[in-house]
Amino acid sequence: MADRPYNVLFLCTGNSARSILAEALINQWGRGKFHGFSAGSHPKGAVHPIALQLLQKMNLPTEGLRSKSWEEFAAPGAPPLDFVFTVCDNAAGEACPYWPGQPMTAHWGVPDPAAVQGTETGKWVAFRDTFRMLDSRIKIFTSLPLVSLDRVRLQERLDAIGKSRPPAEPA
Questions:
Q1: Which residues are within 8 A (CB) of 37 and not within 5 positions of it... i.e. 6 or more apart?
Q2: pLDDT at 80 over 60
Q3: Confidence class for position 170, pLDDT limits 50, 70, 90
Q4: Bridge partners, residue 85, by sequence
């Protein structure tokens, strides 16, 4: 392991829901080995209220979570990034800034719960589903034996995680 935690950036277009959930989850499951960040190509400027409420219900810290531009992480003085994951299809197709340090990248697209229209219950179901998918992927990622995998194998594992589905929710 490096002499510092691995820095992980989660990207989405609006940085209001999916990438925010992922940031909170990696900081929870990373247990000091990983430090999570999130950003957006076109940040909304505010975290979605259901995302914050869900994190609070799951007893995950929400302090410091904010919607911000990915330009913050390409600027001088930004933390060196080890991994960059896109969690929405729009951000995956956009031209990303140059990330100093040549981080490993992968696309872990998940449905956008903030785009769900309809009842409050329907919106909560969408947020919970997205949370479960990200939770599952981040647990797999944080359990990888990073120091024993060469770059090619690690890239294969990162890509495979992006295709994984969470276990079925208990009835």
A1: 7, 8, 9, 10, 23, 73, 79, 81
A2: yes
A3: low
A4: 10, 106
In angstroms and rounded to an integer, the radius of gyration of the C-alpha atoms of the chain is 15
Distance of alpha carbon 170 from alpha carbon 120, whole angstroms: 22
Exposure letters 84-113 (e unless 16+ CB within 10 A, then b): bbbbbebbbeeeebebeeebbbbbbbbebb
- Three-class secondary structure assignment of 79-146: CCCCEEEECCHHHHHCCCCCCCCCCEEEECCCCCHHHCCCCHHHHHHHHHHHHHHHHHHHHHHHCCCH
DSSP string, 24-47: HHHHHHTTTSEEEEEEESS--SS-
For the segment 107-118, the average pLDDT, to the nearest whole number, is: 92
- The answer to whether residues 9 and 37 touch, using CB atoms and an 8 Å cutoff, is yes
What is 6-161's CATH number?
A: 3.40.50.2300
C-alpha 97/C-alpha 115 separation (Å) is 25
The average pLDDT across 148-169 equals 89
pTM: 0.92
Answer with the residue of higher pLDDT: 46 or 1: 46
Sheet holding 104-107, edge to edge: 34-40, 6-12, 83-86, 104-107
